[in-house]
Amino acid sequence: MQLAYYPGCSLQQSSKLYDVQSRRIFSELGAELVEIEDWNCCGATSAGKVDDFMAMAMPARNIGIAEGAGFTEMVIPCSACYSRTLVAQQRIKDNAALAEEINSELAAPINGSLKVSSILEALEERIASGALKDRVVHKLTGLRPVCYYGCMLTRFPYAVPVPDDVENPQGMERVLGTLKIKTIDWNHKTSCCGASASVNDPETAHNLMAEIMKDAVARGANCVVTTCPMCQMNLDAQQEAFCLKHDIETRLPVFFITEIIGAAMDLPPAELQTDRHFIDGTTLLKELEQHEEKGK
Amino acid sequence: MTAPAMAINPNQTQPFLQQVMERSGQNLTACYQCRRCAAGCSVGDETDYFTPNLLIRMVVLGDRDQALSNQLVWKCVSCYTCGTRCPNDIQTARITETLKKMAKEEHLEPLQPKVAEFHDAFVRSGLRWGRVNEMEFMGAYEMKFALRKIKTREFGAIMDEIKTQARLGMEMTRLRRMHFGFLMAKGRKEIKALQRKSKQRATH
Q1: Pairing with A48, which of A58, A183, B6, B161 sits 20 to 30 Å away (CA)?
Q2: Is residue A132 part of a domain?
Q3: Chain-chain contact of B100 with A49 (C-beta, under 8 angstroms)
Q4: pLDDT in tens, A108-143
């Protein structure tokens, strides 16, 4: 089957690995992610701070393109893109005048038939069909991840149908549970990493990330798993800096959930670009695999 | 810090409150100061005790100057925790986003200029090319920062910024996470048309 796919700007650039992994994982699970034609930037969290109308109009064009091509579901792995698109869709649905204003400028106007899915929702559909379970090769025993959702998957600036529990989401736990991975319960799964503050207000972002990291370490986690490219980049690229500043000795690899699924499916790490982390994650995955070999 | 209630001119108070309510889509008068927003605020330790409930009260009282220029408006990371937990569904992060825009329209110097420069550079890149180019928009952002610091002759700050960004850039290049191509969407024309519409709306 085919699903419309919106990669967004991040997945074409600094988080290309997430794009590569997402396409590969879904193809393994029997769903082809088809990139929609000529998509544009969703405006991310910045647009709402600069131009409210464009914050609705930018994702609207992408929704129209996907609907015009006949898709009924669009998967958006990036949490910010997902959030912006879902909010724009709902606000346009609730406001006929806004819909008319935006639609009149679009080559492919919105008709309201598209389901916007986060990567977790799309993965959970694959769990329900049994497709994910059937593809597990490695057990990854010894992996002790904390699931990190950040802000954008469950908290929205507008009343949209929230896909998971707001304060204690479980989607990632369900996906990893299907792979028989034991996740660690913790306090900071929906805390904020600071997002763009890591660039424009690093002091604040480092304070926020240090709290997240301290809890993960105290719980005995040996990695962080996330679905958000912004969270991944921040916790990975800034980890050395904020850990030094806050006297944290441990370093934890920060994986996209697709990397863990890929490792469980025995897909080659090089192909999944797992070697492109600031904090190395390939060693841990290799060790777990060797450990499993010995156990046999 | 806050203007005393007795000093408030009701004729001036109403338009500001109304403006913020309309533009943010939030019913600020529903706030009964329970401070759940304050308890959950991600940047609560960073804002000099300037909590979301305080901001709401300030807008209600019509203290425009303070409402547009305080640590919460400029440190808010839009994590949306306050609004998610509010018993009256007031999304204060939408209020800080609205106040950021109003401060810009009034040509006020932002308390955290880098925050305003960042979001401007980001959205400008997205609108101009149809897609955001990380290197291009980061370049534009750093340029704005450098020009501002040249004016105040803070050359050390410029050097520190360049060093930090260069270090990150080199590390990203080594890890092949730097993208050297250029992204564009052909549908930029549609986006430009929508942008014109947005400007028309703002002037009406």
Answers
A1: B161
A2: no
A3: yes
A4: 999 999 999 999 999 999 999 999 999 999 999 999
